[in-house]
Amino acid sequence: MFSKNPSKESLRQMLQAQCDNAMLLDNSVHQLYAAEQAPSKPRYRPKKPQVDAYQQEIERLSQARDSVVVAEPPVKISAQESAADLDVQALEQEAAVFMRNRRRK
């Protein structure tokens, strides 16, 4: 009767017989439609160009370099004046308190 693994040809014949039978039973069928073929796809689709991050960074840096305004550096303070402004003992005490609090935690 029916095999467990029917071939393509036998399946095609069974389907054709069912279609013919259905068309004979249905009088309202006047036109047959062929199956549409799938649209052809191009084999190669060009990829979108990717932005080169290195080149983009180079351009950004060159624009930044061109737009930089050179300003005069602030008046320099001599090392002697800056050392006089610092309270070394207060800094040492602050560091000692910080280290003690750090050890407790």
Q: Assign the structural class, choosing from mainly alpha, mainly beta, alpha/beta, alpha+beta, or little secondary structure.
A: mainly alpha
Estimate what percentage of residues fall within beta strands: under 5%
Q: Please tell me the overall pLDDT.
A: 80
Q: What does the overall shape look like?
A: elongated
How far the N terminus sits from the C terminus, by CA atoms, comes to 87 Å
Number of strands: 0
Largest sheet: none
H and E order? HHHH
Which residue ranges are poorly predicted, with pLDDT under 50 across at least 5 consecutive positions? none
Number of helices: 4
Radius of gyration: 44 Å
Q: Could you estimate the helical fraction of the residues in percent?
A: 40-55%
What is shown here, in short?
The protein has helices spanning 8-25, 53-66, 79-85, 88-104. It has 105 residues and is an all-alpha fold.
Provide the descriptors you would attach to this structure in a database record.
single chain; mainly alpha; elongated; 4 helices; plasmid; about 100 residues
What does this structure look like?
Keywords: Plasmid. The structure is a single chain. By secondary structure, this protein is an all-alpha fold. It has a domain at 8-35. The protein has four helices and no strands. The protein has helices at 8-25, 53-66, 79-85, 88-104. The longest helix is centred in the N-terminal third of the chain and has 18 residues, at 8-25. It is elongated and about 110 Å long. The chain starts with 7 loop residues before the first helix and ends with a helix. 0% of the residues are buried. The mean pLDDT is 80.
